[in-house]
Specification:
Length: 184
């Protein structure tokens, strides 16, 4: 595929993504006043449209293997964070998960507020021990609701093939929550 074709496909995706996101954010804003499950359903609708548009414009598809190997009940899904794709896809693949995310994302109008209302786990990364205590407290609440947790052990997006040191959050959750850690 030529560079121009890739650029045009990427442009088409971005234009559609912004348009759909803006429309759904404006139309769906009142859902933020509804129960958490309604916000999650709204997010899943948006993600379904975005992933469909990504497949149509860029040809990106995925194959899921190994779900039958997951332990029953809530787990900690420790995921290599290489793009925004896995955060979107995991929301569809796993029912009612709590994603560990940086607190700054919650300040994005409507989308960030929806992330908070959906019950994700916000961490103030620069707060050291206080951030870790907040992570564990929020994760305990999610596990008590029988929700699995997605955490990115390296703490940020890392390009494919690159590595960063693992942060302490995954180990702390494993020690404190008593649920299995599943690498993804």
């Amino acid at each position: 595929m030529t560079g121009l074709v890739l650029w045009l496909r990427s442009l088409a995706f971005n234009v559609g993504w912004y348009a759909v996101s803006a429309i759904l954010a404006i139309v769906g804003a009142p859902i933020l006043l509804m129960p958490r499950r309604a916000v999650v359903a709204w997010a899943r609708l948006w993600i379904t449209v975005v992933l469909w548009w990504l497949r149509v414009t860029c040809g990106l598809s995925h194959r899921l293997r190994g779900l039958e190997n997951l332990p029953a009940g809530p787990v900690i899904l420790a995921c290599k964070h290489q793009s925004s794709w896995e955060t979107l896809a995991f929301t569809l693949l796993f029912d009612d998960i709590a994603i560990v995310l940086k607190r700054e994302l919650l300040f994005i109008p409507i989308v960030g507020w929806a992330m908070a209302r959906a019950g994700n786990i916000a961490v103030a990364r620069g707060d050291g021990a206080a951030a870790l205590r907040g992570l564990v407290r929020q994760a305990k609440a999610a596990i008590a609701e029988r929700r699995s947790i997605v955490i990115f052990p390296e703490g940020t997006r890392v390009a494919p093939g690159d590595q960063r040191p693992y942060q302490v959050g995954t180990a702390a959750l494993y020690r404190q929550l008593g649920v299995p850690v599943v690498p993804t």
